[in-house]
Amino acid sequence: MNLFLYRLVLWLALPLVRIRLSLRARREPAYGERVAERFGHVPGAVESGPIWFHTVSAGETIAAASLIRTVADQYTAEQILVTTMTPTGSGEVMARLSDVVQHCYAPYDFTFAVRRFLDRVKPQLLILMETELWPNLIHEAHARGVPVLCVNARLSERSARGYARLGALTRQMLGQINFIACQHSGHADRFVDLGADADKVAALGSVKFDLQLPQTACDEQLPLRARLGGADRVVWIAASTHPGEDEIVLSAHRALKAAQPQLLLLLIPRHPVRATDVAKLAEGRGFSVALQSACDNHSATVDVIVGDVMGSLLQLYGVADVAFVGGSFVSVGGHNPIEPSLWKIPVVSGPVQFNFPDVMAELEAAGGLRTVQDVDGLAETVAQLLGDEAKRTAMGIAAHDFVERNRGASGRLLALLQDQINVALAAKPPGQPGRSDQ
To answer: What domain range is 282 assigned to?
Structure first.
């Protein structure tokens, strides 16, 4: 496929994109807000000439927040713009960075939307977090002389096969990126195999390993556990679950409660909008259920608490004794196992791990994670860990130590960004938007 054909296909899909957005807004009303931004209409409050970070969704925003804040603190004369694609990502930007950055949604990859956005914003530099590769966006930025960096990038074997099928379009797109900083050497090799210049690709590690537990989360750990009714109970968490996994988790919980009647499950859907449906599913299976937002100290007899509070997952991990990380029994590819590891608790995953294959494999080799194949394996493994405090503690320490050994990517990325930002600023004529006096 070439760029012309890609644009033609995308143009023909425009009505479907609008319909899909409308349908999603029915389930998640936030998708019905600020729709114009998705088609390149930039809010008037956003100033031109920024250093532009694109973080996609909540997970990327959380991982990149410290790095972005450091850049903002070092380049105080420059505007920093952070864009996302999802309301959850938008919420994290506002919660974590609103005092130092500007924010809006990024445009969909239609030529007219991207051009409208770039004509209005005139960024000095575009920094794509992880692997948010959009051909029109990258092509139009490159055509305007805007350097494009892809940092904290990851590329699974499955994704690489998909990009390979696009042939010339992928090669052209990768050739227009100034530098690709990957999480792992295997990811770097795949980018090079797809056509990226080997001199412009490096493995610098993952900024996800540099996440620190906020002191407030540590201070609230025991009070939160008490508020959720688990002060004197054993607790396990099933985090970031998707449709099809909730049923597996609840079946495992049924088996586990036969041996430990007081066991509490924190069931946290990946998308909080699903919380009510998940609660009904649990009630239909005979469990007593409460929503997280409605919990108090009287929840001590509840079997299942369903998470419906945005942005609380990291803190909820600290309440649990064992963590199952979702997206790994369905074709999502598994979610981030680093966050539970920070709390020194054992991590359990299903067999589908293509989102984080290297991290999952290395964490398991380090002794901090166990992979299970089905509901019986999940129930058996969680039961073993809950019944063996010494093993549970050893796995938790192994998981935490694994994270500690892999820290440092943020510092390496910061050095890369400083070099690229300084070059971009030096190339800007005096008096142009975003000119720094540094």
So the answer is: 220-405
